[in-house]
Backbone:
């Protein structure tokens, strides 16, 4: 069924020479008989005009959509975790429901709230017929996503902010895509399973049972090529020379071990925008870093940069 | 079938479950890997690996299974060190770029072997040797349009090469990373409990009860939730601990910033615990160890940080502390340690040295007194699990003397 994933002993030692020189990967690929290709899964998501997606992330999104599993996204701040959900919603043409998790959030808040105080108030002042409890049930983002008649995208943003038990409390609802309202005895089941995208900033460790059910992707920091494209999305008419000069300096800065808070994508975009506004010629970037405050937000980092520069930049110029 | 890969991953320490494996099989049956090993690499990772700290483990297992990770060139540590802290490359003009010698792959490989054999020191910004930021074909962070990457961050192409690059090495959980991660690990120590203390109004319950009883206000009171963990941190400083000063400092600030302990106390010691503990790193002032011990009861949790590395007499001899001029009594170091182990509810020893050298004589003696963990993120998590678990054994709140 998967000939290129054949038994280890079958392929591992039969071709010692090609394995040595590192061409093994290619030779495994070459063994796929054309006839064996199954119908390819549809690529439903492929980035949008405003959001460029790396192939690995795109595949993770598509497999999550196809297998109807929640997609858990982690990554450095500023790598576009939250923007991903917007892009997915835009690309598959579904409405986006956002649930911003806070440290006080409870799993039930996402489903529904029973507004007892309003009912109490109505009971005292005889405003409405209070026998119908349903009018006091207020649905949260997850509840609304499950009630929806069409397929929606649900973003559960920064799930790690909440209590440690929070993800576990959601397991059942995310698995079955249904929940019951205790007060009315109703059970609500999703007609179309929503696409669930969850982001985490690693503030807390997520429980294993929860992780097992997710498709997981860690957004690595974009490489220079992808970064060029990303900047161009925001600054379509940026000069090539300025862009590559900026990127060289940006990645160099990120590699300095003494710099504690490494600049991120959004900071790079701001920096380039500022350089262009001020009309700073590319040549000036050779020896200095104007507006470095846009990239480095900690005083200690700016100091570290000065130390590195006096020590090292000089040595290149010689 | 390729079930062997599943067992290989598990053998390499990735706890892939059967359910996760079956989702991968489902995804493959639906054609998600598009018959490319590169896509398969990413697909299997998305479905089987759920923590970025395990990415490196996965990369290595993948490369072992599908390729073999022997380096094409034996690049020794020394050369990789020269390639750390890269210098900023200068921009090239187009002519310069055109002038750069272009070589075919074979020539490049031959040249690289030659240079690896003859290079004797670090070179940055140059045009010949293996280095950073230059125009030589070898090294990284440079401006040569061709050439072979040596070290540095990279963009190989085939899946096995990508896996072999081990891009996620610094996300591993067995390295200590930063204060915030340590803090997050420590936070798991907290144990919220409702017990004695003045009661507070439970607003949610009050509203609920009142609503249910048709508007008659019914007050619900309950004791507040409090974190009852008290943490005592004892740290070895100076001497053999100097190489670990950075790590210890980070652990210390993580514990110090943690506001969720009912009490947090810390003292320093040198080598082993004797008559006195110190409140400053230079070890001038501090209480007597006896006084500290008296204040510790079953409501405390004890964490000791040290390499447990000393001369056997310093630990066992009755006058071990005398040699250091820090002890006036004839209590041996190990005796003090045993007393500390008895007092708190739970204790753990964090050792910044790797586990493989823990069979040194004094380390193994101390391991019999304290459960020992590596001072890494994984080790700290295990220690926290142990401390939490140990507390489950005796939870009775009345045990406080």
Residues:
């Amino acid at each position: 069924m998967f000939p290129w994933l054949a038994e280890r002993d079958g392929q591992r030692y039969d071709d010692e020479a090609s394995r040595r020189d590192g061409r093994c990967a290619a030779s495994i690929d070459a063994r796929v008989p054309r006839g064996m290709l199954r119908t390819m899964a549809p690529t439903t998501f492929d980035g949008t005009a405003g959001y460029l997606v790396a192939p690995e992330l795109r595949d993770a999104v598509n497999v999550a959509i196809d297998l109807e599993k929640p997609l858990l996204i982690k990554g450095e701040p500023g790598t576009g975790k939250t923007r991903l959900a917007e892009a997915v919603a835009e690309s598959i043409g579904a409405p986006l429901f956002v649930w911003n998790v806070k440290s006080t959030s409870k799993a039930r808040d996402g489903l529904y709230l029973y507004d007892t105080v309003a009912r109490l108030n109505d009971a005292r002042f005889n405003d409405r017929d209070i026998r119908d409890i349903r009018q006091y049930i207020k649905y949260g983002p997850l509840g609304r996503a499950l009630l929806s008649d069409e397929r929606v995208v649900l973003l559960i943003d920064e799930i790690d902010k909440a209590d440690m038990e929070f993800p576990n409390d959601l397991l059942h609802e995310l698995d079955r895509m249904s929940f019951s309202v205790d007060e009315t005895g109703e059970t609500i089941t999703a007609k179309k399973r929503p696409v669930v995208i969850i982001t985490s900033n690693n503030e807390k460790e997520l429980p294993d049972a929860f992780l097992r059910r997710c498709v997981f992707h860690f957004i690595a920091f974009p490489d220079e090529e992808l970064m060029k494209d990303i900047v161009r999305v925001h600054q379509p008419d940026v000069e090539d020379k300025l862009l590559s000069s900026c990127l060289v300096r940006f990645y160099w800065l990120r590699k300095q071990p003494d710099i504690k808070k490494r600049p991120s994508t959004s900071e790079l975009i701001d920096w380039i925008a500022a350089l262009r506004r001020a009309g700073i010629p590319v040549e000036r970037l050779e020896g200095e870093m104007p507006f470095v405050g846009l990239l480095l937000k900690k005083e200690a980092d700016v100091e570290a940069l000065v130390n590195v520069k006096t020590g090292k930049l000089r040595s290149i110029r010689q | 079938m390729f079930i062997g890969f599943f067992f290989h991953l598990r053998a390499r320490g990735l706890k892939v479950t059967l359910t996760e494996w079956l989702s991968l099989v489902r995804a493959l049956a639906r054609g998600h890997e598009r018959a490319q090993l590169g896509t398969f690499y990413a697909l299997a990772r998305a479905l089987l690996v759920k923590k970025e700290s395990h990415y490196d483990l996965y990369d290595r297992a993948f490369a072992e299974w599908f390729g073999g990770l022997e380096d094409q060139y034996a690049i020794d540590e020394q050369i990789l060190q020269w390639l750390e802290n890269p210098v900023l490359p200068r921009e090239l003009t187009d002519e310069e770029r055109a002038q750069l010698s272009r070589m075919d792959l074979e020539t490049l490989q031959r040249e690289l072997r030659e240079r690896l054999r003859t290079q004797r020191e670090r070179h940055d910004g140059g045009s010949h040797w293996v280095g950073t930021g230059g125009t030589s074909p070898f090294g990284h962070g440079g401006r040569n349009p061709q050439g072979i990457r040596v070290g540095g961050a990279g963009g190989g192409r085939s899946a096995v090469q990508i896996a072999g690059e081990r891009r996620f090495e610094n996300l591993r959980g067995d390295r200590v990373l930063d204060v915030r991660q340590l803090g997050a690990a420590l936070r798991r120590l907290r144990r919220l409990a409702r017990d004695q203390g003045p009661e507070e109004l439970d607003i949610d319950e009050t509203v609920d009860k009142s609503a249910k009883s048709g508007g008659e206000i019914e007050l619900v009171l309950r004791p507040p939730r409090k974190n009852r963990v008290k943490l005592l941190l004892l740290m070895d400083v100076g001497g053999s601990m100097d190489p670990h000063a950075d790590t210890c400092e980070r652990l210390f600030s993580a514990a110090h910033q943690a506001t969720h302990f009912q009490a947090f106390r810390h003292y320093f010691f040198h080598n082993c615990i004797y008559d006195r503990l110190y409140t400053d790193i230079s070890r001038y002032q501090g209480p007597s160890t006896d006084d500290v011990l008296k204040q510790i009861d079953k409501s405390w949790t004890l964490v000791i940080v040290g390499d447990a590395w000393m001369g056997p007499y310093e630990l066992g001899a009755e006058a071990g502390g005398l040699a250091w001029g820090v002890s006036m009594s004839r209590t041996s170091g190990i005796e003090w340690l045993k007393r500390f182990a008895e007092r708190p509810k739970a204790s753990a020893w964090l050792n910044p040295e790797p586990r493989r050298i823990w069979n040194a004589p004094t380390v193994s003696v101390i391991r019999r007194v304290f459960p020992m963990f590596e001072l890494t993120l994984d080790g700290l998590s295990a220690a926290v699990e142990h401390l939490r678990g140990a507390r489950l054994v005796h939870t009775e709140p009345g045990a406080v003397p």
User: Anything to note?
Assistant: The longest helix of chain B spans residues 377-393. Chain B touches chain A through 70 residues (CB under 8 Å). The mean pLDDT of chain B is 71.
